[in-house]
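Bug #77: duplicate submission created two jobs. Keeping one. Sequence:
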Amino acid sequence: MACDILRPLSNPTTCLISACLCDFNLRKHRQKRFSGKDEDLFKAIHGCIPAMKVLITGGAGFIGSHLAKYLKREGYNVTVFDSFERSMEDANSLLEGIAVEKLDLRKNLRNLVKHAKESVIVHAAAYTSAEESIGRPLEYLENNVASTVNLLKATSKIAEKIIYLSSAAVYGNPKRLPIDEAHELNPINPYGASKLSAEYWIKAYGNLHGIDYTILRLFNVYGKGQRGEYAGVISKFIERARRREPLIIYGDGFQTRDFVYIEDVVKAVKLAVEASNLEEKIYNIGSGKPTTINQLAEIVMEALDAHEKPIHMPERSGDIRHSQADISKAMKHLGYKPEIDLTEGIKRITISN
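Kept job's structure:
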């Protein structure tokens, strides 16, 4: 039986019967927005439709684990793959109720391949430290680029779509602000170079095999649970402020970053999961607002009632000076709209931890 998802919505009885019986792939229509009675009806028949499969590489990491929990709550069939080499300390409890498989993307991907047919793959696995990458460039090449190629080779002919979580590091030091997606790509450290290289491999496989893909260039993501050696500056500031130790600022502190809360990021990924065959393939995901490191220090200190004066250390090599995302394209094409400002985001972290 043929089923036109748009036509039957005007006839509730026909739609309910045909939606449950037809052989149409309704999963691709979940991103459509309905209203009124049509929306109520769509929710009613939703149980007839198999949950969309989403595979998350690096799903035991900071971004990946938040994404897995969020998509699971939203009704997706989520499977996490991770080597657990740099996973969250409490990854097992964070991912309770979610299918998890230990997997090294640099090796045999047989266990992932068996899940990949008609799935959306969110590729979040990566080494993420710009500073570390300077001293260990070959490891970043292997973990961020070769593993991506291995994943594409194994799944690009059978997966429905791949969403790659890239980084604003591909831009390097910007020539204009805010940074739009057409900005010159000029990474200044091996980490940024590895993320850009992986982008090109994804584009190549998209051209070669026709797999649908979306690349999300994430700016400075922060949120609950981000800690440890590879955490961002916000987590490190909070840890020191809690210990009543002075915050350490590299350089004069007037360098800017675009901080985006993890909840806004996972919602952006969900929008990309639900969209299909977008004409635009690359999107910036940030807050759209610049914050100096000095301003960040003040916000953290006020949130934790810390009064120790920050210590300024020499600038670190490989760090960019300024960063601010132009998010207009993501807002237009994905419907992305960040909701958590920096002060509120830091408040949520300090209260929950």
